[in-house]
Amino acid sequence: MTTTGPGRPRKQQAVRPGATARDEILDAAAELFTSQGFANTSTRAIADAVGIRQSSLYHHFSTKDEILGELLGGTVSTSLAFARAVKDGSEETGQELDPAARLHAVVLFDGLQLCTSRWNLGVLYHLPEARAEVFQPFMAARQELRTIYGDLGRELTALSDADPGLGDTAFRLVESLINLRADGLIAMDSASTTADTVMILAGLRQKIQAVRDASSELISRYGEANRRGEASESALAAESA
Amino acid sequence: MTTTGPGRPRKQQAVRPGATARDEILDAAAELFTSQGFANTSTRAIADAVGIRQSSLYHHFSTKDEILGELLGGTVSTSLAFARAVKDGSEETGQELDPAARLHAVVLFDGLQLCTSRWNLGVLYHLPEARAEVFQPFMAARQELRTIYGDLGRELTALSDADPGLGDTAFRLVESLINLRADGLIAMDSASTTADTVMILAGLRQKIQAVRDASSELISRYGEANRRGEASESALAAESA
Question: CA distances (Å), B80 to each of A18, A157, A180, A231, B145, in order?
Fold first, then answer.
């Protein structure tokens, strides 16, 4: 049955994840953009994939660019919120966190997002089309994430003879998970191996297990705070600052 | 003057690098694909950018896909020829080459290609459109290059406690130069820093200068053999084998 009560029936039963029509549109667009290409996908095709009329789609998004902008933003927003919390963590919690564990945790968390998101939207980062003004919020968020990687890297390497560009290398390695995924080469441990690789670059091969333990504790604590609504509040505070 | 002798004059003077009309078409297509997007570029626009008629373009390439396939192939062919020569080097020259210098040289050589090519065509690797059958030669060449990285990495780490996935990490780091370039962040030393990073991952931080010296000697020797026409012959021999 495709009728779901009074009113005009939807063309087909909703089969996409997402609580709202808006979420379903984003999911359908993500699938089409990554499988057929952005330029080759019309808003009509997106509406058809959701089972709604094109005019209904325009109720939620005024352009195809707006949909892409929101999807691209979604690839960094969760990781950026975590990276901000990790960066500000020592002040907020009043305890000094191990710099190695902080960078390891950001790499692992960000890497997991890129490996496990429903669609591999990172392949759209370097579309010429994604350089337009409408994507500035995404570009700014990605740049802020890159900057936090750089800061965490310098904090760690200030104590050693490791390359001060460690954070930038870490950022490159994490984003290369997008390419690995596009090539069908992602494994269960791709994100954690990437985080370990960054620690080896920092000269911490011998201490890797201790760093891993502290890193996963950091991620668990964040998850818990998030469930209590604290982490998202502090992320919002950082955003409005 | 745009007339260059008898016959139909070209619409405009050739301003693109390349000895032949075919090269000019490839150069114009590379510029348009990377700046406007592949799907947004018509063969008509490419012909216009060269200053020839669309029908003349079809004399050289029967489809836009064929142009993209040739451009993508060009991003790996030079590096693959070098990587093959390095891989087979010890047998051909009868002398054992240092495994660290071999991997360093392949990373540096490949990285330099990606950083200094006229257009940053690597941004087109993960276009959904580039997964079609017509791009199989490119995909196969890129896969062979990845395999050589993996082999050279294992050869090096067999002697140490370094990660046996070193070659794969090196391949990811080199290709991330494409992203760095798309973000406008390439520096003069990006390729050599990448090669050094791989050596640090291999645990060779203390020996880096010796590895660099042996690596650049290897690249020079290849360049010389290439000028004498030897390297390209051996590359061809490997191709037909």
Answer: 45, 35, 19, 48, 6
